[in-house]
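Weekly modeling sync, notes
Attendees: AB, CL, MP (scribe)

Item 1: holo prediction request
CL wants a bound-state model with 6-O-phosphono-alpha-D-glucopyranose before deciding which constructs to order. AB pointed out that an apo prediction alone won't tell us much about the pocket. Agreed to run with the ligand included and paste results into these notes for async review.

Input as submitted:
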Amino acid sequence: MCGIVALIGSREAAPQLLEGLRHLEYRGYDSAGIATVALAAGATGGGQLHCLKAEGKLINLTARYEALGAPGQCGIGHTRWATHGKPEERNAHPHLDGSGRLAVVQNGIIENHRSLREELQAEGVTFLSDTDTEVIPHLIARRLGLLQAADQATDAALLLRAVQDVLPLLQGAYALAVVWAEVPSGLVVARKQAPLLIGLGEGEFLCASDTPALAGFTRTILPMEDGEVALLTPLGIELYDAQGARVQRSPSLLSGTEHVADKRSFRHFMLKEIHEQPETAALWVARHLPEDGPLPSPEGLSLVALPLDEEVYENVERIQILACGTSRHAAQVGAHLLEQLAGIPTSVYYASEFRYSPPPLVPHMLTIGVTQSGETADTLAALAMEQERRQLMADPAFAPKLLGITNRPESSLGRLVPHLLDIGAGIEVGVAATKTFLGQLLAFYGLAVAFAERRGHGSGGPDPQRLRALVAELRGLPALLQQLVESHDQRCADLAHLFAETQDVIFLGRGINYPIAMEGALKLKEISYIHAEGYPAGEMKHGPIALLDARVPVVSIAVPGTVFEKVLSNAQEAKARDAQLIGVAPACPDTEQLFDLLLPLPEVDELLSPLLTVIPMQLLSYHIAAHRGLDVDQPRNLAKSVTVE
Ligand code: G6P
């Protein structure tokens, strides 16, 4: 987590650093800080370090900058999501060495920080924070002292050398940036398993954890690879690999980041992003569902056009999906589709569990990593681990086959996996994922149809007529979503006050809508801080029903199909315990009679229903949180991109 920026050029660095941090605030907002280096008046060599920090959101740091200033054309910045040490100003980055002339910002976790801290303390170093990061400036300062004592010239190359010497001492994952008052015209950045990109401007370079911070600055970027270190000066970039060898690599062009952060007339980004879903669906339909083609046949696969090599589909006997949070719920819907439509046994794992207890290897496995940010540390590590253990197998049936589903093709995921599905939902700013979830669902619909077509009817795949009907319904999705978002926005706003005192909510769903019940509960927890559980409706009677009384509302997803009657019966059981029942269901005599409140849905094929049932979940959570006056876009303790374990 956390976002870092670093700038060197010929203009004042602080305003651009703050602007960069503004676009990284989604990575954490517990505190923020910058350090700049200015040439000291009349000085010949070294300069002066100016460091500003503030607890809480970036706005507090900006106010401090406006009052105090931070001169210099070279600087670093940080926005924090607390891991080691409380979210207090003393734990805010940048962290300084004992002389106060060297500053470091870091995103990641230094796992051996305790032993390093003890070693430094034994040498007389005093620590001012509880962070893991603070060991780094002290280690670099110690190394600089030794190099200087050995008569090395005090210049940017010396700073580079000291950082390169210190990095092997650090265990864990990190992206970091270092400035030193002795060299006002150079800064050093490095990364290991945490993202870092360098943007090339005109006579200036901006380095950042993620592309939104670079988008308004330049379109020319150089993503750093794992283990690389770079020295940035106004004259250029020197890039080195982990062994210290110079690396030459051409920059690439940033795409799709034009429409950065603009709330339009909406009160929150989350609401804007909920309203953007019909457009997300329309773009997806236009890109991937070609006009009505002939009936699918082995010679003319035609229903869905995904930009994937045919190799992805070949010889796949099983699928495993690795993901976290909301992405995992999309994966669960995906697994249902891959099994029920394409007949491929599919398992979903929490990436954080998979990486330490992977299942035994089986042949002909497709592994899918789902992460909207493409930077979630657990998902990346789980995929890398799977790749490595399969590469060790001599039998080609066990060879790794990795596919990523993401909203950020330029992310670390994009560089890790050979096959990628870009959901193309556009930048999502609200920490609670909404339109990217819909985009992930759509990716799975496309994938399941594509697999089903290739397997063919009779060998586990569905009847071609059924597939064709599903795809025809998918074409109508944008219009249905438009109606649904518009009608439920006001409806959910009107209901929000009923939840003013609510402390617990149960969400029920079955079959393909069970993951949507989980997603509804997660959304509510994330932004309204109300305890919520998503449960398979049929399991209620095995425990959770004990929680129910008149104070615990139950949101029940009931769509016509295989489990409609069953879900209605389960809802009835909740009603018998006095729970207030909210139905996400089509309006019909049964549902109107059963539910106390109904959030009505149009009727669609049950398999497509998650694309609709999720909308009332999102809007209900949004309006409950907004009614409570909470910070919907930046909920407490959360970050959009979780780049630590
Ligand atoms: C964080 C976010 C969640 C998100 C999860 C996975 O916890 O707060 O909204 O679902 O990370 O993120 P990813 O980028 O991998 O989809």
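Recorded for review: The radius of gyration is 26 Å.
Action items: CL to compare against the apo run; MP to circulate these notes.
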